[in-house]
Structures are given as structure tokens and as C-alpha cells.
């Protein structure tokens, strides 16, 4: 198999139009994800007044549905054939599912009457959540698996991931700005528990779906997807003088230990990114006792710094390797979590500091983890969607289980000095920092394993070269001895070959071979 580095200058360069089109192809998902992680629990507990267990169960159902859908979608993308492009086909299907279902999640239960059972409400919201998550997974996996198809240049891969991640945070900024404006103009000036505030969340979902769908349509107009046959043919033509490209099948990934290590890296990174996003609104209102607008402008600050972090990541990768760059992000996250522990509800201005640090640090970690996943796939584009699906499976299941456990242990009391305030302080301090440390350990193991195997391969190559040289010297000596015998007039041996050399002839020859060695 030919390494992707040797192909990066041979594949047709990706155009600026295609780069722009690819970068906006995930905006609908990013807008919905910002609403999902930042406001789903808050909407059900503080707006609809559902129990903590009810909200946590719905979050878990959604994450499990997404986790189950991702490898299935990845498998189907790798198996189907479509004249439109199999990845773009699933992207279109996912866009339709997300657009149809998302607005119903952030709205009151339409068929439920007053006093309806919790089971009926759970079935109603759960159905739309499952539909939304299957659509979200289809869009995410198809979009991610397009990167190795569009380019194999490692710098372009990092660039596309950086732009994609940067726009993810831009979408978050847009969501928080819209939420800030809607809350500021809402009917109630108190905590968001009134009917007007319910309409705020519904209006937010309508805006998100409308804007995101528009960008998805533009993505389909600007990006062309090459078929796997075209890619394989192109790669084989470029490597005709060496060997045809040999791509991994699905079962080969399960034999690769790096596949599991990169999966753990991606999972811990996503936990470090998503948990602060989920519980920051609760920390702001229930621990620091801030006004309702704070659930918009503090997350906005975090997302602005995340965009800065995405560009900082690109600069850092020019002066250090990916492992050190990732560790820089980990240190920023740990510093932010430590700062969260010492915040109080008096000096509100100090809250911007840790919010900015965790935004920048988590952005760096996410970009590097996505880049490591793209490096793992390399030229194996025929099973790339399956790999991304497995990574996302770990991500979704781990996030859902973590949130469900946190909600399960949520204290029932309320008040400024009750355990609730300490509870969210502990969550914002210990969970993101612990997962960031686990991510650093994972990427360190990947790096050590890669370096060890590279050196082992170089050592084996050196041994093979020496053995090859020895064989060539042996053949040359045998040929030389045969020629000298013929010139010396030994007519009886004139027609013998290498297999008919007598023991008398072999003895001095062996001495010559030993001297050559």
C-alpha cells in the first residue's frame, strides 16, 4: 500500500470553490448541535418543568440513537452505489430528516393535553429525537468521510478540519447571539420559565432549521463527489510503476490497535468539549445566580475563543507536532476547570476568563483528534465512513451515559447555598479536566506506538537491504568463478551450471563469500 504522503502532490488539488462548499456542508448539524447540547436539558427542566431524570433519559435516548445510527450509516455509505455520489446522497437524506424533526423537539407536546402522563410526553419527544439523531448521523458521517475523497494532502486535511471546526464554533456563536436577542426581547424579564420564553426556544429552532437548510443546499451545488471507482483507478494509475493501491476492508480495522486508540482519543475529546457546553447554562444560573441572558452571552464568549483556538491550532502545528499541540489544548482546559472552582457569584467579570480558556483549549483538542482520525483512514476511502461511524458511536454513547449519570445523581434541593450550586461547580471542574487528561494519555500512546513501529520498520528494511546485497554478491562471485574456469581451458566443465560446482570449487568460493560479507 502506498503511503498517502507520496500521493499528496499527484491527486488533483481541491479547488477553492470545493473547499468553501465543503466547509458549509455541516452548518445545519452544527446549529442544531449547539441548541441540543446547550439548551435541551435546560429547556425540559427549567422551561417545561420536567424532572431531571426525564430530561436525562431523553438525552440518553438521543445519544444512543445517534450512536447506533453512525456505524450503520457508515456501513451503508461504504456499500451503496449512487450516480449522485453515495456520501452526498446520505447527506441529503440526513438534511431532510433533521429539518423535519428538529423544530418539534423545542416545542410543547402538541397532542398532549393538560395533565398528560409523562410516558405519553416521553414517547412524543423521544420519537422526534430518534428521527433527528438518525438524520444528524447521516449528515455528519457522510460529510466527514468526504475529506479523504476530496484530498489526501495532510496539510489540506488539517486545513479542512480547521475550517470545519471553526465554522462549528461560528454556528454556536450565531445560536447564542440569536438566543441573546430573543431572550432580551421576551415578554418575561425574570428567569425563563414563562410562556414567552417557551416561544423563544421554538423561534430559535425555526431560525436554525431555515438557515442551516439553505447552506446544505448550497453545499450540494458546489461540491462534486468522485466515485470510489474513479479514486481507485486514479490511485492505481499513479502507482502503476510500483504496486496497485490495496485498501482495507471493514474487518481489517478491528485488527488494528491504532483504530481503538484513536477511537478513545476522539471519545475523550468529545466529552471534554460537550460536557461544559451542556452544563455551563446551569452553572451560570444555579451556581453563580446570573440573569437569564447569561445563558447566551457567556457561551457566546466561549465560542468566540473557540474560533480563535482553531486558527491558533493551525499556527501551532507549524512549529510542533500534533501531540504537543493537543497537550497545549489540554493544559488550557485544565486551567479553565481549575478557575471555575474558585469563581463566586460576586465577581461576575472573572467568569469570562475560564470561559475563554475552555473554548480555545477544547477547539484545539477537537481539531487534532479529527486530524488523527483522517490520518488513520489515509487512502482507505472505501471504508472511511465506517471508521467515522465507529468514532462517533463511542462519542455519542459516552456522552449520553455521562449526562444520564450526572442527572441521576443530581440533588433535588434548590436555593443559593444548597448542594445544587456545589454540584454544578464540581461538574464543571472535574469532568472536563479528567476527560482532557485521558485524551492526552491516549494520544501519547498513539504517538509512542507509531514511533516504535516506524523504527522497527526501518530496522527490518535495513536488514532486508543487507540480505539483498549479500545475495547479489554471492551471485556475482559464482558467475565470476564460472567464467574463470571456462577461460582456463577446463573443457570438461565448460557446460556446467551453478548446481554442478564440485566441493573442491565450493571451498575457496565460500572463503571468498565470507570475506565479502
List the defining traits of the structure above.
517 residues; mainly alpha; 17 helices
Outline the structure in words:
The chain is mainly alpha-helical. 76% of the residues lie in helices and 0% in strands. It contains 17 helices and no strands. Helix 11 (257-287) runs antiparallel to helix 16. It is globular.
CA radius of gyration: 30 Å
Global mean pLDDT: 81
* Apparent shape: globular
Quaternary organisation of the protein chains: single chain
Number of helices: 17
Instruction: Extract low-pLDDT stretches.
Output: 1-10, 490-517
Series of secondary-structure elements, N-terminal to C-terminal: HHHHHHHHHHHHHHHHH
Q: Beta-sheet strand percentage? A: under 5%
Give the strand tally: 0
State the end-to-end distance: 32 Å
Task: Classify the helix fraction into a percent range.
Answer: over 70%
Largest sheet: none
Q: Helix/strand/pairing class, anyone?
A: mainly alpha
Task: Compose a concise summary of this entry.
It contains 17 helices and no strands. It is an all-alpha fold and 517 residues long.
Present the secondary structure layout.
Layout: H1 16-23, H2 27-47, H3 52-79, H4 86-105, H5 118-144, H6 147-150, H7 154-184, H8 195-222, H9 228-238, H10 250-253, H11 257-287, H12 294-319, H13 322-341, H14 352-377, H15 384-408, H16 419-487, H17 503-516
Helix pairs in contact: 1-8, 2-3, 2-7, 2-8, 2-11, 3-5, 3-15, 4-5, 4-8, 5-15, 7-8, 7-12, 7-14, 11-12, 11-14, 11-15, 11-16, 12-14, 13-14, 13-16, 16-17
Amino acid at each position: 500500500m502506498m503511503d498517502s504522503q507520496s500521493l499528496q502532490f499527484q491527486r488533483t488539488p481541491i479547488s477553492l470553490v470545493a473547499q468553501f462548499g465543503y466547509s458549509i456542508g455541516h452548518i445545519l448539524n452544527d446549529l442544531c448541535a449547539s441548541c441540543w447540547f446547550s439548551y435541551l436539558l435546560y429547556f425540559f427542566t427549567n422551561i417545561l418543568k420536567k424532572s431531571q431524570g426525564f430530561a436525562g433519559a431523553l438525552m440518553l435516548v438521543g445519544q444512543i440513537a445517534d450512536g447506533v445510527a453512525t456505524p450503520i450509516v457508515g456501513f451503508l455509505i461504504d456499500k451503496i452505489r449512487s450516480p449522485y455520489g453515495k456520501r452526498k446522497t446520505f447527506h441529503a437524506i440526513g438534511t431532510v430528516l433533521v429539518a423535519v424533526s428538529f423544530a418539534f423537539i423545542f416545542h410543547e407536546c402538541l397532542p398532549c393535553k393538560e395533565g398528560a402522563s409523562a410516558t405519553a410526553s416521553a414517547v412524543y419527544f423521544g420519537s422526534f429525537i430518534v428521527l433527528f439523531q438518525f438524520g444528524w448521523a447521516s449528515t455528519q458521517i457522510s460529510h466527514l468521510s468526504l475529506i479523504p475523497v476530496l484530498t489526501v494532502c495532510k496539510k489540506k486535511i488539517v486545513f479542512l478540519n480547521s475550517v470545519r471546526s471553526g465554522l462549528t464554533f461560528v454556528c454556536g456563536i450565531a445560536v447564542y447571539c440569536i438566543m441573546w436577542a430573543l431572550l432580551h426581547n421576551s415578554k418575561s424579564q425574570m428567569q425563563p420559565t414563562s410562556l414567552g420564553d417557551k416561544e423563544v426556544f421554538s423561534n430559535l429552532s425555526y431560525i436554525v432549521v431555515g438557515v442551516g437548510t439553505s447552506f446544505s443546499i448550497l453545499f450540494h451545488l458546489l461540491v462534486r463527489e468522485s466515485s470510489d471507482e474513479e479514486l481507485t483507478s486514479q490511485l492505481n494509475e499513479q502507482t502503476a510503476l510500483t504496486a496497485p493501491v490495496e485498501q482495507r476492508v471493514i474487518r481489517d480495522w478491528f485488527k488494528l490497535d491504532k483504530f481503538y486508540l484513536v477511537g478513545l482519543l476522539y471519545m475523550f475529546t468529545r466529552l471534554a468539549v460537550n460536557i461544559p457546553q451542556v452544563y455551563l447554562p446551569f452553572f451560570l444560573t444555579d451556581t453563580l445566580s446570573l440573569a437569564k441572558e447569561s445563558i447566551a452571552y457567556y457561551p457566546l464568549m466561549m465560542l468566540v475563543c473557540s474560533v480563535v483556538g482553531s486558527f491558533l491550532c493551525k499556527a501551532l502545528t507549524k512549529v510542533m507536532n500534533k501531540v504537543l499541540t493537543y497537550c497545549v489544548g489540554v493544559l488550557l482546559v485544565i486551567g479553565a476547570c481549575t478557575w471555575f472552582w474558585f469563581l463566586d457569584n460576586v465577581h461576575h467579570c472573572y467568569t469570562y476568563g475560564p470561559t475563554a480558556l475552555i473554548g480555545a483549549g477544547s477547539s484545539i483538542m477537537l481539531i487534532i483528534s479529527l486530524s488523527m482520525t483522517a490520518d488513520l483512514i489515509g487512502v482507505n476511502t472505501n471504508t472511511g465512513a465506517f471508521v467515522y461511524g465507529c468514532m462517533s458511536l463511542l462519542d455519542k454513547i459516552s456522552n449520553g451515559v455521562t449526562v444520564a449519570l450526572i442527572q441521576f445523581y443530581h440533588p433535588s434541593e434548590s436555593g443559593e447555598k444548597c448542594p445544587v450550586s456545589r454540584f454544578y461547580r464540581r461538574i464543571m471542574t472535574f469532568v472536563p479536566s479528567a476527560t482532557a487528561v485521558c485524551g492526552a494519555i491516549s494520544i501519547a500512546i498513539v504517538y509512542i506506538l507509531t514511533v516504535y513501529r516506524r523504527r522497527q520498520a526501518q530496522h527490518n528494511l535495513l536488514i532486508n537491504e543487507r540480505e539483498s546485497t549479500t545475495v547479489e554478491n554471492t551471485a556475482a562471485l559464482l558467475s565470476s568463478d564460472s567464467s574463470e574456469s571456462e577461460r582456463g581451458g577446463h573443457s570438461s566443465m565448460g557446460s556446467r551450471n551453478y548446481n554442478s560446482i564440485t566441493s573442491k570449487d565450493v571451498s575457496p568460493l565460500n572463503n571468498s563469500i565470507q570475506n565479502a560479507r
